[in-house]
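User: Second chain of the day. Same drill as before.
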Amino acid sequence: AAAAAAAAAAGPGATPYQVISEVELYGGVVLRYVSNHGGHEGVFLPRYEAVAPEPVEGGGEAEVLCYGLQRLDHAVGNVHNLLEAVDYITGLTGMHPFAEFTAEDVGTVDSGLNSMVLASNNELILLPVNEPTFGTKRKSQIQTYLEQNGGPGLQHLALKTDDIFATVRAMRRHGGWRGGFEFQKPASADYYRRLAERVGADALSPAQFAEVEELGLLVDRDDQGVLVQVFTKPLGDRPTLFIEVIQRIGCMRQVKVQAGAGAGAPAAPAPAPAASA
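Assistant: Same format as last time:
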C-alpha cells in the first residue's frame, strides 16, 4: 500500500516528497530509513524550515554558529546479549561484522564489556553493540547503563570533526548557552605526561600534544592512524546517553569503540550514580 501510494505521488506534477520507514534495533531505539523522491531538496524532514542565524548581542552581523561537526561517525548500543542482537541486526539490515573487542582488549576496570562493530557495505555507517561482562571487582559500565536505562538502548553518538581542537574550543565557548554540553573531566596528569611515549612522539605535533592536554582530550593510535576524542557528561540525570566528539587522523575506516573510549585509550570517567527515581 505504501509503495502504491508513493508511486501515485510520483506522477506528473507531483510535489517532491520523502519516504520514511523505521525498524526497531534494540530497546526503544529505531533505525530510520529516508529516501527522497521527485527532486525533494528539503532542509531535513517534511515541515522543517531553515532558520536565520541568531542576532549578535548589541547589534551587528548575525552569527552562523558552527562547531565543525561533519557527520555521525558511529552510534553505540548497549544490550544484554551481544550475539543475539548482532544476529538480529545483521539479518535485518544486511550489515556485516567489522570489528570485535573483548574485555581483555579494552582492559579497563570499569568497562567490563564485549563489543562488536557492524558496518554497512561501504563501511560509512557503523553500529557498535556492547554487552556487559561479569566476574570483575567493579560492576561493568554496560550493566550500570542497562539498569539505569531500564534495558537496552543507545549509549552514545560519536560526531566526526576534521579539527577537534577548533570544535571543542567552540563548544566550550558556547557551553551552557547554545552548546548545551558539559565535558567529562580530563584524564590524570600522569596520562598526559606519558602520552607521547605511549602513542609515539610523531603521532601529533608538539603543539597538538599541548592542546590535547589543555582541552582534556584523549588520544589513541594503532597501525591505521591516530584517534583523538572527548566525551560529554550524560545528557540526562542518569549515566546513560552521552556524546563523543572524534577526529580520525590517517585512519582507514578503523573503528575504536568501548564503554566510553577507544580500545587502548582510557575509559571515559565513570559518571556518578544517579539517584533512584
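The radius of gyration is 21 Å.

User: Great, on to the next one.
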